[in-house]
Amino acid sequence: MLFYLTTLNLVRFLREDAPTVTENETDKDKRTAFEAWGHGDFLCRNYVLNGLDNSLYNVYSPMTTAKLLWESLEKKYKTEGVGLKKFIVGKFLDYKMVDSKSVISQVQEMQLILHDLHAEGM
User: Fold this and answer.
1) Between vectors from CA 19 to CA 44 and to CA 69, what angle results, nearest 5°?
2) Sign of dihedral through CA atoms 120, 79, 8, 52?
3) 46-50, 66-70, 79-83, 116-120: which has the minimum mean pLDDT?
4) Angle formed at CA 64 by CA 84 and CA 90, multiple of 5 degrees
5) How far, in Å, CA of 13 to CA of 18, rounded?
6) pLDDT tens, 2-49?
7) Domain ranges of the chain
8) Which of 29, 37, 44, 49 fits 66 for a cystine, CB–CB 3.0-4.6 Å?
9) DSSP 22
10) CA–CA distance from 1 to each of 42, 51, 80, 90, 112 (Å)?
11) Distance CA 19, CA 35 (A)
């Protein structure tokens, strides 16, 4: 996502705060810059939201700026070494036995998941 936003020249909105303009501001250049920033931030925020899984969209869509959204995602998912563990644990917790597969093949799948957990040191 970061590479994509860089190619679109939108990555700056992940770190910048919105420029401030008061209601009584008469400087046309400041107003134009503020509106341009708002449009760029809107695009950046929505590109990031579009890249999320559908189950995460409603969780993160209330974020009002791309910066807030990005910081929230980084806080949640950018923990070195924990990401893969969370993925494997999630896979384990979401695993469901189904009638269309043999019990033996399903037990083997569970063993592979548990092996991945063990390999990650959990």
Assistant:
1) 35
2) positive
3) 79-83
4) 20
5) 9
6) 889 999 999 999 999 888 877 776 778 788 888 899 999 999 999 999
7) 2-77, 83-119
8) 44
9) -
10) 16, 7, 18, 22, 30
11) 9
Can you tell me the distance from the alpha carbon of 86 to that of 51, in angstroms, rounded to the nearest whole number?
19
Can you give the pLDDT at residue 70?
A: 93
* Residue 73 tokens, joined: 């995602």
Tokens of 10: 């939108």
On the 0-12 / 13-18 / 19+ scale of CB atoms within 10 A, 45 is buried
Is the pLDDT at 121 greater than 60? The verdict is no
Q: What is the pTM of this model?
A: 0.60
- Whole-number mean pLDDT of the chain? 79
How buried is residue 112: exposed, middle or buried, by Cβ count under 10 Å (0-12/13-18/19+)?
exposed
So what's the pLDDT on residue 90?
62
Nearest to 16 by CA among 1, 32, 35, 38: 38
